[in-house]
Each structure stands twice: as structure tokens, then as C-alpha cells.
Amino acid sequence: MSRPVSKKSDPALADVERGMVRLRRSMANRTLGKLAVRELGLDVDLGTMAVLDVVQEGADEPDGEITVGLVAERLGVDPSRASRMVATAIDAGYVERVASQSDGRRITLRLTESGHQFEDTMHRFRQAQFARAMEDWSDREREQFGRLLLKFTASWRETMRRGK
Fold first, then answer.
1. Which of 44, 53, 68, 103 sits a CA distance of 20 to 30 A from 33?
2. Residue 47 maps to a domain
3. How far is CA 82 from the centre of its chain?
4. Angle at 132 between CA 127 and CA 135, to 5 degrees
5. What are residue 70's phi and psi, to 5 degrees?
6. pTM here?
7. Is 62 helix (H, G, I), strand (E, B) or coil?
């Protein structure tokens, strides 16, 4: 059951919307990934970077497995595109295919040692960029923002899941 859209504008929600639109635009332009490639001198496809993030993030369930289908779902691409992206990550040596622990006929994905090293490098780079963006924020503001951002993204994910 969906709620009717309020005719009265909520300034806080307008700020959230404006911020999310700006963030989405930056994400769509892959600004942070392009910056990492340029500043770190990486020889990696931006699609591979996205695949590595999905594989490292893991499944939603504690015993869940990472599959090409999950990569497709999280990246919002069709399964054939996800399969090509995963193949590129495998060819680069960052991801490997392994037999499922629950069904040996099924293939799952995991990071190689090189994939873990790459992700560690990316975490340090991204966090350094976020620290630069928040350099004039207090520790309390950073903590609150992190907590609220995680809360928002969890709520948003659930809202979108219910809306399907």
C-alpha cells in the first residue's frame, strides 16, 4: 500500500532529495572511480571495480553466496552484461569462480588475494576522499552522518524491495 504524496512540502525531505540527486549524478558519472584510476595510476576497468565492490560486500543473508545474478541485480544490469563484467574481473585476476558450498553444480564468486588487495587500496582511497570532504566536520557530525546514512540506505533498500 503506497502513501499519498503530501501536497505540503517538507524542507528536510527537499534537502534529502536535492542531496541524493547530486550524489546519484556523481555516481552515474563514476567520479570517484575515475579519480582513483587517475590518481592511483590504476589499469582497471570501472565495471571491474563495481564487480569487486559487489563481491566484497557479500550476500544479504549470512550464508548467502555471490553469483553473477546477484552482481546483475546490484549493478542494475542484465545477466549477460554482468557475466561479461565478471569475466573481465576474472581475467584481470581479481575474482575467481568456485563451486557453491550448498550445491556443487552452482558457481559462486569470491575475491582472489589480488582482489582483496585492490579492495583494500580502494577503501583507503575512498575514505581519504570522504575525509577531505568532511575535514571541517566534527567527529560527532561524521559519526552521526555515517550512522544515519547506513540507516537511510537500509530503509531505502527495504522500501524499494517492497515496491517491486
1. 68
2. yes
3. 14
4. 115
5. -70, -40
6. 0.83
7. coil
- pLDDT tens for each residue of 74-87: 999 999 999 999 99
Tell me which residue of 103, 119, 110, 96 sits closest to 42, measured CA to CA.
119
For residue 67, the enclosing domain spans 12-133
Across 128-152, average pLDDT: 96
Does the residue 91 lie in any domain?
A: yes
What's at 157, amino acid-wise? R
- Which DSSP symbol is given to 2? P
- The CATH number of residue 31's host domain is 1.10.10.10
Residue 63 within any structural domain of the chain = yes
The Cα–Cα gap between 69 and 54 comes to 11
Q: Which residue spans within the chain are E strands per DSSP?
A: 95-99, 107-111
Domain count, the chain: 1
Candidates 83, 82, 92; CA nearest to 114 is 92
Spatial separation of the C-alpha atoms in residues 113 and 19, rounded to whole Å: 36
Q: Which residue has the cell 567520479?
A: 31
Instruction: Write the CB contacts of 68 (distance below 8 Å, at least 6 apart in sequence).
Output: 79, 82, 83, 86, 107, 109
Residue 93 falls inside a structural domain:
yes
